[in-house]
């Protein structure tokens, strides 16, 4: 099922404030402010699987150096992510790579609807951020033992393998991390509550994800740099470079000279 009014998973909708503390909207507003204050090269957006990633050392090791922002909110569905992206979380930034990981919380939707909701997110990103390469992470198995939700998530991934290649600037990273053992069980050492990942569980996902992100960043052309000023050759004399390298100032020429000499 594709996006559209006929698919409830593809209709943007803010999360209901069931608990009464408005935390969801507060988090969204903070993300919008981050878009105004920061310049990410990589943007992560999704549910708690994205949100909790930054609590582990592997985030600081692999993704923080890439100037990454984490826009994950626990409990989010495709509808919630669509609403957030339509309401400020794609403005004032120009990321080179956007990682999308959402869908396991779409309990009221069929696998076809969930896949359509994810497709709608990809199409929205392509419209708002056409320069960005998009990575969709496949949904993970869940529950200690085999259950219908595992089957549903697996079906979503199968549907995405067919539908996403038809869209621009996107690829699916479907890695189950070997979480399901030969007896059909998932270990608490990988998923502490049989849904959310431990540090070791994240490592199985984040390492191949990091490799793919690095590949896409290397393929992304650098923005055109301004031409060198006409007067530059006359001042860049070898004996002057050490002195220039320590010049600091607020003017464009001084800043440029300092960077060039270093």
From TrEMBL:
InterPro entries: SGNH_hydro, SGNH_hydro_sf. Keywords: Cytoplasm, Hydrolase, Lipid degradation, Lipid metabolism. One of its GO terms (cellular component) is plasma membrane. Its EC number is 3.1.1.47. It is found in: Cytoplasm. It holds the Pfam family Lipase_GDSL_2. Forms a catalytic dimer which is either homodimer (alpha2/alpha2 homodimer) or heterodimer with PAFAH1B3 (alpha2/alpha1 heterodimer). Component of the cytosolic (PAF-AH (I)) heterotetrameric enzyme, which is composed of PAFAH1B1 (beta), PAFAH1B2 (alpha2) and PAFAH1B3 (alpha1) subunits. The catalytic activity of the enzyme resides in the alpha1 (PAFAH1B3) and alpha2 (PAFAH1B2) subunits, whereas the beta subunit (PAFAH1B1) has regulatory activity. Trimer formation is not essential for the catalytic activity. This is Platelet-activating factor acetylhydrolase IB subunit alpha2. It comes from Balaenoptera musculus.
């Amino acid at each position: 099922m594709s996006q559209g009014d006929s698919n409830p998973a593809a209709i943007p909708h803010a999360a209901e404030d069931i608990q009464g503390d408005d935390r969801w909207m507060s988090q969204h507003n903070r993300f919008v402010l981050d878009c105004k204050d920061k310049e990410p090269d990589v943007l992560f957006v999704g549910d708690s699987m994205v949100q909790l990633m930054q609590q582990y050392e592997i985030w600081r090791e692999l993704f923080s150096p890439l100037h990454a922002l984490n826009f994950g909110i626990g409990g989010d569905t495709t509808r919630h992510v669509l609403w957030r992206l339509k309401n400020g979380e794609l403005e004032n930034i120009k990321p080179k790579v956007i990682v999308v990981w959402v869908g396991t919380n779409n309990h009221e939707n069929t696998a076809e609807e969930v896949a359509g909701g994810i497709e709608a997110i990809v199409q929205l990103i392509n419209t708002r951020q056409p320069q960005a390469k998009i990575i969709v992470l496949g949904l993970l198995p869940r529950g200690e033992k085999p259950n219908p939700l595992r089957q549903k998530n697996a079906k979503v991934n199968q549907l995405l393998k067919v539908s996403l290649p038809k869209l621009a600037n996107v690829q699916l990273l479907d890695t189950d991390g070997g979480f399901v053992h030969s007896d059909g069980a998932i270990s608490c050492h990988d998923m502490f509550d049989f849904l959310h990942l431990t540090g070791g569980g994240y490592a199985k996902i984040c390492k191949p994800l990091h490799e793919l992100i690095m590949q896409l960043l290397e393929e992304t052309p650098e923005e055109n740099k301004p031409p060198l000023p006409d007067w530059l050759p006359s001042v860049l004399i070898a004996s002057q470079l050490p002195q220039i390298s320590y010049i600091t100032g607020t003017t464009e020429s001084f800043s440029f000279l300092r960077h060039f000499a270093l």
